[in-house]
UniProtKB/TrEMBL annotation:
UniProt source species: Lissorhoptrus oryzophilus
Uppermost EC category: transferase
Protein name: UDP-glucuronosyltransferase
UniProt similarity note: Belongs to the UDP-glycosyltransferase family.
GO cellular component: a single term: membrane
Length: 521
């Protein structure tokens, strides 16, 4: 009887698991309106829906082109995109590169609180939280938004974190991913790291980590706690919410970054956002097809507007381009710029991934954003990087180091026609850059699972093992003084100090007895 009951129960549990696996429900919380963050989130959630998951997507933009016959619901957090774009328009990123990283982080978090708070209070989000409504996993990008981890706590389900620029330190710590400051550059570290780090570079890199730690501890975490507890007074503290973290899907790959040790639950899925190339608009297609001498594609990304460039920089670029036999496609917001050289086509929007796929594209001039870097490596195109802010300097250094690009920082005093022309000639005439770009591309594509297949595989894996706690290294839950062995070091310093003290005491004592002996004789 007892036995029968047990096996019956087992059967029921088994059926239940099968049932939930069949159409597991995923909640993707991605209210961050930054274009590249949104693109990555949207592609991931659509890909998971196509793979058969029931997807609910919290987003700043209405989803376009939802795949057919899938279970996909989006909840738009209205207004956050407008606020973000207005604020972003006020910050001149070209000038912003002069502020220090702590100031930048503080000003960005004030901006970020807007969509975190709006998500926590949104009526449709609140409606999801009705008793009885279940999700099997929560997905979100760890990006100064720890308060949103509360949803994993509410639904008592695993938390799947994503990153949009590789294993960034603040995500890495959630799964105990080591980031030794001796060779893993912090994203705010602006030095060159071409041949390993020198003493001073390592010191400066360490300071970047310490500044970030201090920023988290004194600014970010208290702010997240405040916003979360305003919305949900009974919520745990955000640092406790990290318990729910199961896995990190990092939008990176060995071919883009440098090799580094990876813990089992930080998996690299970089490139999943790149679809098979689509047909280009007719004018672009013709422009590219006709370009027998090759085409240079030039875009400074979505956040940095080319029209904010000072006139002399624009002229320097235009003059350098007009001296080349190659054609130039420039993504530029002023389509009607005066004095456009004959070999140029200017558009305020370009389908970048489809353009890079064209065989006549010989060079990509880029700001070096992480997605652009990924896309250029995917298609094996050399780069001239004009870094402006954040991780773009690092990405520029890597392109130089790996031999598939050259760099010219935006505020370089030698940013003039002659320099630009010389760099472009070198990149176009020396086959080494194209060879190395193609090599990177082969490394990029040489993996057992295609990037989107890997996303689906690891989400499924996480659900199969109910959060896959067996992947988590013990270091993830250690306090930092234990992780860094600071207590053991302190113990040894104390013992050494005590030893020296005792030695000194003995020597003085000995000296004293000798003195007294001498006196007696
Ligand atoms: C997840 O894995 C289960 C069994 O391991 C399989 O039956 C199911 O089809 C998978 N689901 C997806 C969406 O891949
Ligand atoms: C979607 O489902 C309908 C009805 O089942 C079917 O007729 C249609 O072909 C499907 N479309 C796709 C793209 O699978
Ligand atoms: C968050 O939103 C609520 C409700 O809209 C508002 O009362 C509160 O002041 C906001 N908090 C912050 C920090 O913006
Ligand atoms: C997270 O784990 C810690 C240590 O095991 C525990 O004290 C804390 O209550 C947990 N928090 C939550 C929200 O589960
Ligand atoms: C490209 O070549 C085709 C045929 O040779 C020609 O009709 C067309 O005008 C050319 N387009 C451009 C943009 O030069």
């Amino acid at each position: 009887m007892n036995f029968q009951l047990k096996s019956m129960l087992k059967f029921l549990i088994y059926m239940h698991i099968l049932g939930t696996l069949d159409c597991a429900r995923l909640l993707g919380i991605f209210p961050m309106p930054g274009r590249s963050h949104y693109l990555l989130a949207e592609k991931m959630m659509k890909g998971l829906a196509v793979a058969g998951y029931d997807v609910t997507f919290i987003t700043p933009y209405k989803t376009k082109d939802v795949p057919q016959n899938v279970s996909f619901t989006d909840i738009v957090i209205e207004g956050v995109a407008d606020t973000y774009n207005k604020k972003l328009a006020e910050i001149d990123l070209y000038v912003d590169s002069n502020r220090n990283s702590y100031q930048k982080m503080v000003s960005y978090t004030e901006l970020f609180i807007d969509w975190i708070n709006k998500t926590l209070h949104h009526p449709k989000v609140r409606a999801l939280m009705q008793p009885g409504n279940k999700f099997d996993a929560v997905l979100m990008e760890q990006f100064f938004d720890d308060a949103l981890k509360y949803f994993a706590h509410h639904f008592k389900c695993p938390l799947i974190l994503t990153t949009s620029a590789g294993p960034l330190w603040f995500t890495s710590t959630m799964v105990g991913q080591p980031s030794p400051p001796s060779y893993v550059p912090h994203v705010y570290f602006n030095g060159q790291v071409l041949e390993g780090m020198s003493f001073f570079q390592r010191m400066s890199n360490l300071y970047s980590y310490i500044v970030h730690y201090a920023f988290d501890y004194w600014h970010l975490i208290p702010l997240q706690d405040k916003v979360l507890h305003e919305a949900f007074p009974d919520a745990p503290y955000v640092t406790d919410l990290n318990n729910y973290t199961a896995i990190v899907l990092s939008s990176s790959h060995l071919s883009i970054l440098d090799p580094m040790p990876l813990v089992p639950n930080l998996v690299e899925v970089g490139g999943y956002h790149i679809d098979a190339p689509k047909k280009l608009p007719q004018d672009m297609q013709q422009f590219l097809d006709n370009a027998t001498e090759g085409v240079i594609y030039f875009s400074m990304g979505t956040n940095i507007k080319s029209k904010d460039m000072p006139e002399e920089k624009k002229l320097a670029l235009l003059n350098a381009f007009s001296r080349l036999k190659q054609k130039v496609l420039w993504k530029f917001e002023e389509e009607n710029m005066i004095k456009i050289p004959k070999n140029m086509l200017i558009k305020n929007w370009m389908p970048q991934r489809d353009i890079l796929a064209h065989p006549n594209v010989k060079l990509f001039i880029t700001h070096g954003g992480f997605l652009s870097t990924t896309e250029t490596i995917f298609h094996g195109k050399p780069v001239l990087v004009i870094p402006v802010f954040a991780d773009q300097f690092l990405n520029a250094d890597r392109a130089v180091q790996k031999g598939y690009g050259l760099k010219l920082p935006y505020d370089d005093p030698n940013f003039n026609e002659e320099t630009i022309f010389k760099l472009l000639k070198e990149l176009l005439d020396n086959p080494k850059y194209m060879d190395n770009a193609q090599l990177r591309s082969r490394i990029f594509h040489d993996r057992p699972l295609k990037p989107m297949e890997a996303v689906v595989y690891w989400v499924n894996y996480t659900l199969r093992y109910h959060g896959a706690k067996h992947l988590m290294v013990a270091g993830a839950n250690q306090p930092f003084y234990q992780y860094l062995m600071l207590d053991v070091v302190a113990f040894h310093v104390a013992v050494a100090w005590l030893g020296l003290y005792l030695l000194k005491l003995t020597i003085t004592k000995l000296g004293d007895t000798r003195k007294t002996k001498i006196k007696i004789h």
